[in-house]
Amino acid sequence: MLAAVGLVGAAAVVLGHPAHAAVHRAGLVIEHASGRLVTRCVTFVEDQISGFALIQRSGLSYQAQSYGSMGQAICQLDGEPSPVPANCLGTGPYWQYLHRAGSRWVPSQLGASEWILRNGDMDGWLYSDRAGQMLPAWTVEQICAPPPRPTASTPTASTVPPTAAPTPFPSPSSSPDLRTPVAMATPRPSPRPPSSSSAAGPLGALGGSLLALAGLSAWNLLRRGP
Amino acid sequence: MTGLNPLTWCAWALAAIAAALVERNPYLQLLLLAILLTVWIAARHDRSIGYWRAALALGLLPILFSLVFSRFGSHVLFRLPSHLPVIGGAWTVEAALYGASTGAALLLTVLVFAIAQSALRTADLLAVLPRPLYRLGTLVALALALVPQALASLQAVSETRRLRGVRAGWRTGLGLLLPVLLTTLERALQYAESLDARGFGCQRRTRYHPSRWGLADGLVLLGAIGALAATMLAPSGYDPYLQLAPGLPQTALIVLLVPLSIPAWLNAVSRRAAVDHV
Questions:
Q1: Where are the domains of chain A?
Q2: Cα separation of B260 and B219, whole Å?
Q3: What is the CA radius of gyration of chain A?
Q4: SS3 A76
Q5: Packing angle between helix B26-43 and helix B6-22, nearest 10 degrees?
Q6: Class (C level, CATH) for A2-143
Q7: Rounded distance, CA A12 to CA A18, Å?
Q8: What interhelical angle do B215-233 and B262-277 show, nearest 10?
Q9: Which residue has the higher pLDDT, B50 or B232?
Q10: Nearest-by-CA chain A residue for B235
Q11: A167-186: pLDDT as tens digits
Q12: pTM of structure
């Protein structure tokens, strides 16, 4: 891995970038209404880029509309919907913005131009009008092509993708093993409700706190008198 | 309860306001409501606070606003013909919930202010102001006293009018304005004069009732710091447009927010001693 980074660094030198610039990767997953999945691996030399910059650098076509201080709204992504609705977002399905946090997808609280991605982060876009849908459980490693194996000859360095340029995800036919860990059933299963064991902690703490506070209030009221 | 240092109350209020404004998870808002009500019950004076109706209106108004003006969301309540200017289109559950979330945050904030107002005396706040700010302090005292005094005189004037047989209503509101304004100004002037007579604004003044730091202050401060840190580092969010059902908050967040109720616990422990001494 270290050798690979060094090799990419060498490529960066060849391409005229500063030698000390580390190369960072971020993943992008897009799911169309038809269920068609598109993934992109974006490499960048900065410490962080915005979610909007991730789309711009992925090479996917998009239409965005500025909402002033609220940032950019994504009206069209990778040709969907076509044509772009009159007021950008329309009233039906829209592009939902999700972040990969740990082992799950969480809906974004921020717009794409406000969200910051660092090395190893991943963003997801889902075209749907229903909330609560999830994207496949992919990791950046699965999306990004495995780093090229270092060899002794220098010309292989030229095969390393240039920094800040899109790296297309290899088609499923060329590397089927990348798809195996993912459940690809077309009607995706709805996200599981939190299991009872994980819900017991917060619910127990909440219920206990509320009971204790109610008891305390009753005590204070009784002490004071009506 | 009033034994706490004014600065401790300020720190508590800061942490509570931060939590009330930032935490948007409905479960946490419910917890915060319980905490604040508990502290309010412990901290209130004999006269109950009269502006709960205004607070409730403040909490309900965002629901109306969001419902009327937001057209996003997929859970449609009903549809109005889309040719109607502002209100036409789909009215959604999401919009109502988003407004409710915002309204709850406002309501909680008002509650924090109500508690701080009943627990803190303006004079105590002035006493802890740094020396160079004393001149400014008189001004702050006037500003802080203005709204409660205006409310009090409003109550007094309308009571007097009712005794004279004038029916209270929207029409009589205008007639109330002048007496209330005059009374408030008169009271503010009196207040300023009394502050002046007691040496506020001078370089040095002694304190009849020095504020001390005690174990109770330390406990409340620790709780406030913990809650503030939790609020700042791991704020909980809730966006009904993305997911209607709120997620459960983290247990650690609950555990760190509950110490905001420490003033009420101290009150429960200390009052018996206070009663015994009297």
A1: 2-143
A2: 10
A3: 23
A4: strand
A5: 160
A6: mainly beta
A7: 7
A8: 170
A9: B232
A10: A109
A11: 444 433 333 333 333 333 33
A12: 0.57
Residues found in chain A: 226
Distance CA B263, CA A183 (A): 52
CB atoms under 10 Å from CB of B157, counted, come to 18
- The shortest C-alpha distance from B178 to chain A (Å) reads 37
CA dist., res. B200 & res. B271, Å (int): 32
B 176-215 residues with CB below 8 A of A? none
Q: Is B265 within 8 Å of chain A by CB?
A: yes
Secondary structure (H, E, C), chain B: CCCCCHHHHHHHHHHHHHHHHHCCCHHHHHHHHHHHHHHHHHHCCCCCCCCHHHHHHHHHHHHHHHHHHCCCCCCEEEEECCCCCCCCEEEEHHHHHHHHHHHHHHHHHHHHHHHHHHHCCHHHHHHCCCHHHHHHHHHHHHHHHHHHHHHHHHHHHHHHHHHCCCCCCCCCHHHHHHHHHHHHHHHHHHHHHHHHHCCCCCCCCCCCCCCCCCHHHHHHHHHHHHHHHHHHHCCCCCCCCCCCCCCCCCHHHHHHHHHHHHHHHHHHHHHHHHHHHC
Are the C-beta atoms of residues A18 and A12 closer than 8 Å to each other? yes
Task: Let me know the angle formed at the C-alpha of A126 by A120 and A131, rounded to the nearest 5 degrees.
Answer: 115
Provide the pairing of β-strand A62-66 with A72-77. Answer: antiparallel
What residue has token string 């020396």?
A: B131
Q: Contacts of residue A132 in chain B, CB cutoff 8 Å? A: 243-245
From the list A109, A205, A221, the residue facing B251 with the nearest CB is A205
Would the pLDDT of A18 be above 60? no
The residue among A220, A221, A224 with the most chain B CBs within 10 A of its CB, best to mutate, is A220
- Please determine, for residue B87, whether its predicted confidence score (pLDDT) is greater than 60: yes
The Cα B231–Cα B16 span in angstroms is 10
* CB spacing of B251 vs A202 below 8 angstroms: yes
Q: What's the token pair of residue B159? A: 């009571």
**Cα–Cα distance between A130 and B124 in angstroms, integer?**
54
Model-level ipTM above the cut of 0.85: no
Distance CA B235, CA B99 (A): 19
B31 neighbourhood in chain A, CB within 8 Å: 206, 209-210
